[in-house]
Design goal:
9 strands; 2 domains; alpha+beta; UCP029033; SIMPL/DUF541; elongated; 26kDa_periplasmic_antigen; Alpha-Beta Plaits
């Protein structure tokens, strides 16, 4: 009888141990499964940052174009017109060290004439071209000269000018500071999205930068995409903007 009781007690203890072991295993597996599901959940948000910036350098190009009967006369005409242009630039306070003068180019000049009502191109002398590029941090002088050059054209000097370009020299540092701010903005947005669901935003899984925008401060955009986005070069006052896309784990 004593042996049977001892055997019964041993079996009871073994059963309790097995039950406790199975319960513990179930708890551990449940926690692991919960973490596994949680780690697979994520949220994707966009972050935005922008700030006002100013151009600190201007570029301006002026073109000379002449027509003359011979190549020698064409080159002489270019020299005369360039002297007039350089005198004009001196008067505008744009020093010689701000200028880059391109080489002269020559080519045949064609005019259309009709023979028996049939048009054809006939060479009438030569065309000559030369460009002068100006780069300076004095934006006001460029803006003033761009207006004043109309007087040269009014005096029948064969010059034309492109619209000045107003550039920002430290774009890379502006871009990096905005990326940091846009990333902070992305986490703030993610936190707002999930706070009603009783979960938290975890670590960043991935991030990517969108286009970098340099826009006029007054709004609108520009078609130039030379800096991986929109780059307005027509205004002095601008807005720099960066958008990032970030994926966060949900805990």
């Amino acid at each position: 009888m004593s042996e049977q009781k001892h055997f019964f007690n041993a079996m009871t203890a073994l059963g309790l141990l097995l039950a406790l072991g199975m319960a513990a295993a179930a708890f551990i597996l449940g926690v692991q499964a919960k973490h596994a599901v949680s780690s697979q959940q994520s949220i994707t948000v966009k972050g935005l940052a922008e700030k006002p910036i100013k151009a600190d350098r201007a570029q301006w190009t002026i073109n000379i174009s002449v027509v003359a009967p011979t190549q020698a006369e064409t080159l002489q005409a270019i020299d005369r017109e360039r002297a007039v242009l350089e005198s004009f630039l001196d008067q505008q306070g744009l020093a010689v060290n701000t200028r880059t003068v391109n080489v002269q180019t020559l080519g045949p000049h064609y005019e259309e004439e009709y023979i028996h009502d049939n048009p054809r191109q006939v060479q009438r002398g030569f065309e000559g071209y030369q460009s002068v590029h100006i780069s300076t941090p004095d934006l006001a002088k460029i803006a003033a000269a761009n207006q004043a050059i109309l007087s040269l054209r009014a005096d029948n000097h064969p010059v034309s000018s492109q619209a000045p370009e107003f550039l920002v020299s430290n774009l890379e540092s502006v871009k990096m500071s905005l990326i940091a701010e846009a990333t902070k903005n992305a986490r703030t947005r993610a936190t707002e999205f999930v706070k009603q669901d009783g979960v938290q935003v975890g670590v960043m899984k991935s991030a990517s930068q969108g286009a970098f925008y340099i826009l006029p401060a007054t709004g609108g955009d520009d078609s130039d995409n030379s800096y991986g986005g929109i780059y307005d070069k027509s205004t002095v006052d601008k807005i720099a903007r960066v958008v990032v896309t970030v994926v966060y784990n949900i805990e």
